[in-house]
Amino acid sequence: MDTTKTANIQFDSINISSLKSVVNIYQSKVNDTKSKFIKSSDDFGLPLSIASFDNRVIGYAFVLIDKAGKPEIKSYWEQEFYSIEIEKDLKFHAQNTFFTAFKDPETRINKIQNAAEKLFNWLNVCN
Q1: What is the DSSP string of 13-82?
Q2: What percent of the chain has pLDDT over 70?
């Protein structure tokens, strides 16, 4: 697993064990901590990378398709850990993961949308 460190913050690719933390960060970002469900795959996107501190997920980067039909990498954070520098490092890690996972530009958009929708449905069934 490729790991990069920035001042005790570790960046890793998303994995199944980090999904609960990712969902919790997402729900706090969209102010929906009471619901167990993710409301929209369009907002949740497809998580690619996580930032962690002391084995705790503090942020994650995800790809979604913007209104122009282009992939866009965004991130959500636990507020007390956010900084522009760390966000840049996380997005850089996510971008590398993105280009490794979605090499073919011709099929990239469909693959992202399908993967995000499948993850969205799976997470809502599991909750």
Answers
A1: E--GGGHHHHHHHHHHHTT--S-SS---HHHH-EEEEEEEETTEEEEEEEEEE-TTS-EEEEEEE-GGG-
A2: 84
For residues 13 and 62, give the distance between their C-alpha atoms in angstroms, rounded to a whole number.
Answer: 11
Q: Residue 117: how many CB atoms within 10 A of its CB?
A: 13
Contact at 8 Å (CB) between 86 and 51?
Answer: yes
DSSP class of 17: G
Q: What does the angle CA 113 – CA 119 – CA 121 come to, to the nearest 5 degrees? A: 100
pTM higher than 0.90, yes or no?
no
Give pLDDT tens digits for 58-107. Answer: 999 999 999 899 999 999 999 888 899 999 999 999 999 999 999 998 99
